[in-house]
Amino acid sequence: MLDLLLKGARLPGADGLRDLGVRDGRWAEPEPEAAEVVELGGALVTPPLVEPHIHLDAVLTVGEPRYNLTGSLFEGIAIWAERVKDLTAEDVKRRVRQVLRWQLANGVQHVRSHVDVCDPQLTALRALVELRDEVRGQMEMQLVAFPQQGIYSFDGGEELMRKAVQAGADVVGGIPHFEITREYGERSVKFAMALAAEHGLRVDIHCDETDDDHSRFSEVMAAETIRLGLEGRVTASHTTAMHSYNAAYAFRLINNLRRARMHMVTNPLDNSVLQGRFDAYPIRRGHTRVKELLDAGVNVCIGHDSVMDPWYPLGYGDPLQAAMVLAHYGQMSGYEELKTLVRMITVQPALALGLENYGLEVGRPAGLVVFEAPTESDAIRLVPRRRLVLRAGKVVARTEAARTTVVWDGVAEQVDFLKK
Ligand SMILES: [Zn+2]
Fold first, then answer.
1. d(CA 40, CA 328)
2. Contact 189, 217 (CB under 8 A)
3. Catalytic residue (choose from 51, 186, 209, 372)
4. Which CATH class is domain 2-47+359-404?
5. How far is the CA of 206 from the centre of ligand 1 (A)?
6. Is 209 marked active-site?
7. What is the pLDDT of residues 9-20, one digit of tens each?
8. The pTM of the whole model exceeds 0.85
9. What is the CA(213)–ligand 1 centre distance, in A?
10. Gap from CA of 270 to ligand 1 centroid (Å)
11. What is the pLDDT of residue 402?
12. Helix 182-199 crosses helix 218-228 at what angle (to 10 degrees)?
């Protein structure tokens, strides 16, 4: 007998409805006999959402010590430099515990967080390493050693990166376009990737997050990936400069990214407001070439990046909201493209993070998300709260269905915003 039978699930990209069985916390073949039966009524169901790019150490610091009046990246960096002086382990943990709960409510069960390690005490990283263990039953976290102020442009940067790896970072990061010179940037990529190779870690570098079309560190990442045999273990995040590259260079670069089997993370929420700030009209979107990368067979994922911090005052940790913005900002409103957006917050980041045991196949841990919508298109259109989130076969989040009534010409009617 099953522990749980879920009836009438609509799976991404599939026609018709399916039943899903759970036994001992894992997916099992559906059977009529079950201790509990839940009717899903054709709701869209996906494996757990995967957040491949967030900065948990900075979440919920908006307005501390002051608000970002221009909304620019540079004012954000200046405010963070002030806020970071007051950082304590308890302060970091308190804010992160809250956002992890928001993420779980949104269906996220795997999170990769960048953590600023330009701090001789590594306060945030040490706090998050402890928290990673504390929350293991609820959320799987990967921590990236992220040198916010550079590896060669910050005093003792190399040593801090080594210390961060010793302290328990899972992934090695970088920020080559922010280093003082192009040479420092190239060296920082080579250092980070060698460090990762030496310790058997993955790589995730903030790369070319600028509108400067001369910022060309993604090609260095591709070359080092191939040279070190790190294919499939390396992610380039942001790569907004790609928006401004000439077509011939972009063609060559994208081919090499594919050859290196690199993963790309685009962050539509932050980058839609931060890029193009030095442009007079027309203002560039400053967004990586999502469609060209996907067409070339490169794995592209959607990241959230910030939740209420000095760079981005909005957000509530929902990857679906980021997908909704990319539908517009990346012009991905085509019929198949809307389905692709849902893969970009589920199976595609699962691949980038190297998750094993992920998915709805029989035998895997029974994690899933039930959307209050029948199709991918409706989910992106409505960005509804998640009806149900399961982890290892147990309900870990639930939202009661919203009921909206209009009184039309004196008669009460319910509306659900679905095309009938
Ligand atoms: Zn970032």
1. 29
2. yes
3. 209
4. mainly beta
5. 6
6. yes
7. 999 988 899 999
8. yes
9. 19
10. 8
11. 84
12. 30
